[in-house]
Please model this.
Amino acid sequence: MLAQRDGGPLRLRNWSARVFKPAAALADVSITVHGLRHSAATAAIRQGMTPVQVSRILGHSKPSITLDVYSHEFPDDLMAIGDDE
Model:
């Protein structure tokens, strides 16, 4: 776990300014920490993880929060209902 020089917790804003933004600039990519989080969640869903699994990774208190934000990424299995062919 990263810490401040005095041993206190490193805040996201400080870490982003000191580490993430310089690294993104060095890599010549334009992405925010939030954008990276969203991309990781989307990739997990596309690889077949369930809403419960993704919500645990993201730290959401309920899978319904994950579904509210990422429902458009989950496959629509309703088309398969009744298709026994």
About this structure: The chain is about 55% helix and 0% strand. Residues 37 and 58 are 8 Å apart (CA to CA). The mean pLDDT is 84.
